[in-house]
Specification:
This protein has eleven helices and eight strands. Strands 1-2-4-3-5-6-7-8 form an eight-stranded mixed β-sheet, sandwiched between helices.
Length: about 350
């Protein structure tokens, strides 16, 4: 049986920090009875449960975050011009004043390659483009998809509320459009994809709407990859109520993230959260890109993700929906579980289809 890869330094840190709570105690307390748990390797279950515990502990009741506490597991990776697993990386500054930059991943291939602009997850509150987990994920995407990947380091909440993140995303697209030379020669910006997971999937949607209204000179967005996007609303869905005690996502946690993210005085039916709800932006007349949406059977947000897909279809947009029955929210963070390999192959197929339509 293939062993699941877990960063040993991170794992040893977790064990030393949480020595008073053995894995079985932690996993059972957060994931519920065995019958309701997804089938995951124990290392994945332990790490996911611990990250859930620590992110919950880092969120304060007054709406602030104990970033020093969360930094114990949010290790950073430096850019590496020397290829690692066939991919080299470098950092590009867009606005030093806003700490807006992106990490660029370039595979060794010299052929013409599509460009993927990626927005990381973390509830808009946690992680950065140089977090080890997302550095590894984007490197995996670059290698597996044979694409140049731009991972955007956008501003976080609660220090910066919406629309700061959306504006950061659009400004990165504009920067690339006006400074194509910062990318490797192999990057074909006429075949650009937006992509994101969780909160990053939400952000990718809002950036896609703005890009649809822009007149870009060189960048042509032809597809959107939405991986378990973080959407919500005032009304509780069936999946939010019935799928509980799972890693990363809880009703209380989601409510906290929305309160920290949305403009002051807004409720969860704000267009930034409930993108297909009563205040949704009308995209019927926009050139919104063809979209593939991924959701998981153990993700409390799955009903919102399905509604997003259905809204895209009703708006006259081309969309696909992929459901992994055994997947938890954030499954792609763990490279060796089966759903991650499926995700990579289906994203690659989607990208190939869209590029064929352009040719």
């Amino acid at each position: 049986m293939k062993r699941t890869s877990v960063n040993q330094h991170t794992l040893s840190s977790l064990v030393s920090l949480f020595h008073s709570h053995p894995p079985s105690h932690l996993v059972n307390s957060l994931m519920g009875p065995t019958a309701t748990k997804p089938n995951l390797p124990w290392k994945v279950r332990f790490l996911a449960s611990f990250l859930t515990f620590l992110s919950n502990a880092s969120r304060r009741s007054n709406g602030t975050i104990n970033r020093r506490l969360f930094s114990l597991v949010d290790r950073k990776a430096t850019a590496n011009p020397t290829p690692v697993h066939g991919v080299c990386s470098s950092d590009v500054t867009v606005s030093a004043a806003r700490n807006l930059w992106f990490r660029l991943y370039t595979p060794s291939s010299t052929a013409s390659l599509p460009l993927v602009v990626y927005f990381h997850g973390g509830g808009y509150s946690f992680f950065t483009a140089d977090s080890i987990g997302f550095d590894s994920l984007c490197r995996l995407f670059s290698r597996s998809l044979n694409a140049v990947v731009v991972s955007v380091n956008y501003r976080l909440t609660p220090e910066h509320r919406y629309p700061a993140q959306r504006d950061d995303g659009l400004d990165v697209i504009k920067f690339i459009d006006q400074n194509v030379g910062v990318l490797p020669r192999s990057a074909d910006v006429s075949k650009c994809f937006l992509a994101g997971d969780s909160a990053g999937g939400n952000l990718a949607h809002h950036v896609a709407v703005l890009v649809s209204e822009e007149r870009l000179r060189t960048v042509n967005v032809i597809g959107l990859v939405s991986i378990q996007p973080f959407f919500g609303g005032e009304k509780r869905t069936r999946s939010e109520i019935e799928i509980n005690r799972v890693p990363f996502i809880s009703l209380d946690g989601c409510d906290w993230y929305w309160k920290a993210f949305l403009p002051h005085g807004s409720d969860r039916d704000h267009e930034a959260a409930n993108v297909s709800g009563p205040n949704a932006v009308d995209i019927m007349g926009l050139g919104y890109p063809n979209t593939i949406v991924f959701m998981g059977g153990f993700d409390p947000l799955r009903d919102w993700q399905r509604m997003y897909y259905e809204w895209l279809k009703k708006s006259g947009k081309e969309a696909q929906l992929i459901d992994y029955p055994n997947a938890i929210h954030g499954f792609y963070y763990f490279p060796d579980i089966p759903e991650t390999s499926l995700l990579l192959s289906q994203v690659k197929e989607f990208m190939s289809q869209q590029m064929c339509n352009v040719n």
